[in-house]
Amino acid sequence: MAVDKNMNVLIVDDYNTMLRIIKNLLKQLGFNNVDEATDGAMALEKIKNKPYGLVISDWNMEPMTGIQLLRSIRGSGESYKDVPFIMITAESKTENVVEAKKAGVNNYIVKPFNAETLKSKIVAVLGEF
Amino acid sequence: MSEAMPEQNHIEVGGSYGRDQVLKIINSVISKVEHTGDDARESIFKELKELRAIIDEARAEIGMTRPSEIKDKHIPTATDELDAVVEATAEATGAIMDSCDVIMDKASAVGGENGDAMVNEVTKIYEACSFQDITGQRITKVVKTLKDIEVKVEKLLAVVSHKMPGSAEEDSGDEGKSGDAALLNGPQLPGSGISQDDIDKLLAEFD
After folding, report:
1. Nearest CB to A108 within list B90, B127, B203
2. Hey, what domains does chain A have and what are their CATH numbers?
3. Per-residue pLDDT tens over the stretch A54-104
4. Cβ-nearest to A92 among B127, B180, B188
5. C-alpha–C-alpha distance, residues B116 and B108, integer Å
6. Which residue of B has its CA nearest to A120?
7. DSSP label at A107?
């Protein structure tokens, strides 16, 4: 099944710079419907009110972290509980990756990253586009 | 010495010794030894006097270093400076990315091989701009460390001013972190985290 590039994508990061970088890279990949949130709580509100085809989130945010957001989504029992979720973070310890996987992450990108890495992980999660 | 210490009975066993209480004990011992005239006690008397002089000198020296300035001036100044660094780099990065957005639009108009080349180069600039996020997180870690030091200095000051050494309360460092808090460490220094390739392999093990 082909990837619908018109899908809504939610990016979550407390650094405006990173939001802009990811948004621009997604735009270059053909994803133009990109929403932003600056922490997990704001992201969860958006997810409750709008269907997303992909969530790309940082880990280290306050008050709700990326891992808490992921657990909230997966444990919600709602229609969005299985939304594809990619963690993009500077947390590069093995225990972080393991914990994210246990929480149901679909892929994990360590910062700093490049456009090629972002594309390859999106392809791994959603399929070729 | 044992007969010279009855005044200690006024001090709660296992509790902390107040500065005045310690001085009271020393003065009591000196007073009692002073009236015996015994050679051995004369020696003890001399040593206790020296000990009191050392304590007074140490307190004076600590006072002269003005340790409260670390808490009241140096650390707040350092954290303000670091906050300013984050703010300045964020502003500069924003300006760079604004220009990138303009170039990207122009590149679309140029099109063809040159247009593609421009897009590729601008993409590299976007990627490089992620330094602001990484340095920002690192600086945030340093600010947190400074604040931890501030708390420890405050406790040290309290001990020096009012208590005998060894009665410091538990500190608030990171040693006891557990659960999700233990996973919030920010960017790892080179060699202490794992690479994207290692992460990919690790994730593949779950499949």
Report:
1. B203
2. 9-126 (3.40.50.2300)
3. 999 999 999 999 999 999 999 999 999 999 999 999 999 999 999 999 999
4. B188
5. 8
6. B200
7. E
